[in-house]
Amino acid sequence: MDTAAEPxxxxxVVLAGGRSSRMGRDKALLPWQGRPLIEHQIALLQAxxxxxxxxxxxxxxxxxxxxxxxxxxxxxxxxGIAAASDDGELLIIPVDMPRLQPSxxxxxxxxxxxxxxxxxxxxxxxxxxxxxxxxxxxxxTLMAAADxxxxxxxxxxERVGASEIALNSEEARQLIDCNTEExxxxxxx
Length: 189
Known about the structure:
This protein is an alpha/beta fold. It contains 7 helices and 8 strands. Strand 2 and strand 3 form a beta hairpin. It is globular and about 40 Å long. The chain starts with 9 loop residues before the first strand and ends with a helix.
C-alpha cells in the first residue's frame, strides 16, 4: 500500500491588477524578451512547476480575475484569486519583477514550513501562501478593514504566520521590482 501523501496542488498567481501610476504606463504590457511582461511571468510560473496559473486583475486577454474591491492593492488581487480558487498552495509573484528565475521560485515551493506563508528575507513578494479556511478568514478580515493601510501583504503574512528564506546576493538581484521608468531601465538587459 502506498502511504505517500498526494502533493498539495499549487496555483501560480501573477498580480497584474495595479494602476501602474508610478510607471505611467501599463507594466503588464511592457516588452520583455520579445513578449509582454505578463506573458513572461506566466511562463516563469509554469517553468517553476505550478499546476496552473491565474492572473489577478481585470485582464480579459489573460482570463484575469478582477479584484473584488477596486483599487485594493495586491491584497485585493489575492482575495479575488482566493474567491475563485480551491484550497491549496498559491505561488504569488508581481507582474513587475522580470528578473525572477524558476530556480528561485522552486525554493519557495519546496521549503518546508509550519507557517501559512513563506517569502524571502526582506521582501514580501514573491511568496507562497497556504490557501485554507484560516487564510480565507484572514483575507476577509483584512479586506473589511476601514483603514487602507491595514490591507497590506505584511499584515497578511503576520496574521497567517510566515517563514523567511535567506537570499545570496545573486538571488537578491532577481527581486528588483519595476515600479518606475528608472527601475525598468535598470532591470532591462
